[in-house]
Fold this sequence. Notes:
Elements: H1 5-16, H2 20-27, E1 40-41, E2 45-46, H3 52-59, H4 65-69, H5 76-80, H6 83-86, H7 93-115, H8 124-137, H9 147-157, H10 164-170, H11 180-198
Antiparallel strand pairs: 1-2
Amino acid sequence: MTLSEAGLELVLKHEVGGGQRYYDKFLSRPTVPGFDSGVTIGVGFDLGYVTEYEFDQAWENLEGASLLRTCVGLKADAARKMIRAVGGIVIPYPRALTVFLDHTCPTHWVRTLRVFPQTLDLQEDCASALFSLVFNRGTSLTGERRSEMRGIKDALATGHRDAVPGLIRSMKRLWPASSGLVRRRDDEAALFELGLKSA
Length: 199
């Protein structure tokens, strides 16, 4: 599966400010974006949520890779403590985009299908909206904070696709109104709706 043009634009907007100019200024070095993130490099490649094998496959021969590898599995405060050690490593945008398209996307399509198997039958923009959601929030369906994720799974399984945008927007309750995650949920919901209209 591949991202639609609008889907790729959405993910790049929220992960790297839309493209290379913003990336080079703010994201070419490792960051810890916040909440429960790990050390993040490239286009949203969060070292807190990958395996050592996934890291090695994606970033082989990158200068500083051996040091970045020590951040795999670290999240929140543990990740923030590592920024001083890895903060000088630069990841060029072309390499970051290549890793995203060749390694990150296939992995997260599998994860998206695992939690929302009906994604395979959706229009490309609808599928891309769910990809963005899983890419950002993961696949867990456990706990009160994941009630909308369970709702989406149930809606897709019962053929109620039109309920999905509202469930995505309902997640905005989880973050402050000023959070970029609130804007991301709005964008994902709008993209899903666009897909429904063109289906």
